Amino acid sequence: MEKVETSFNDMQTVKRNFFAMRNGVIADTLRRGGSPFRIIFGLNLPQISEIAAKWAPDTALAERLWANQTTRESMLLAPMIVDRQKFTIDDARRWVAAIPAHEVADVMCLKLLRHTDYAAQLAAELAGAETAISRYTAVRLMFNLVQQNPRAALEFADRMLESETDSVCRTVARQLREECEFLLEEES
Question: How many alpha carbons lie under 13 Å from residue 83 in its C-beta half-sphere?
Answer without folding.
Answer: 8
